[in-house]
Amino acid sequence: MKLLGVEYLIVTNAAGGLNPQYNVGDIVFIKDHINFPSLSGKNPLVGANDNRCGPAYETPAEARMLRILGADLAGFSTAHETMVASHCGLNVFAMSLVTNIVIVEDESPRITNHEEVLETSAKRSETLKELVTRLVTELE
Question: Fewer CB near the terminus (10 Å): N or C of the chain?
């Protein structure tokens, strides 16, 4: 993208809210990320991908660990895309739509389901579209 003259990358995603102050439907600007693959010493750009098993949500134990580490959101993507764009010299704006509250209790009667994520995304899509449009207008 940089070679094509792109200066800005705007990325959006759906994410589960870990921060107790976040509510379903909130839009959160991402200021940092925790990149677990790089902590393992393995190259995240090498490997096979199989989407048939996803989406797979975090377990309550993983959610508690993420909170301890300081994570406010749990999402499937964005970290790698924004890292590469940043390394290429692009200005990156990333935001998450909180589509569900992450379950941290082992015995919770709630179950995270993809339908909830899709429903919240549909309800807030117009607001997110307006926000991205305004951001693009401000960048021009």
Answer: C
User: What is the per-residue pLDDT across 55-93, written as a single tens digit (0 to 9) for each?
Assistant: 788 899 999 999 999 999 998 878 889 999 999 999 999
Is residue 49 one of the residues assigned to a domain?
no
Beta bridge partners of residue 13, listed in sequence order: 96
Which residues constitute the domain of residue 22? 9-33+55-139
Query: Residue 90: which CATH number?
Result: 3.40.50.1580
Q: CA 86 → CA 56, 99, 102, 140, distances in Å?
A: 27, 26, 28, 20
- As beta bridge partners, residue 15 has 75, 98
Those residues whose C-beta lies under 8 Å from the C-beta of residue 80, and which sit 6 or more positions away, are: 35, 44
pLDDT in tens, 4-27: 999 999 999 999 999 999 999 999
Task: Give the DSSP letter string of 57-105.
Answer: PPPHHHHHHHHHTT-SEEESSSHHHHHHHHHTT-EEEEEEEEEEEPP--
With a CB cutoff of 8 Å and minimum separation 6, the contacts of 39 are none
Position 46 in a domain: no
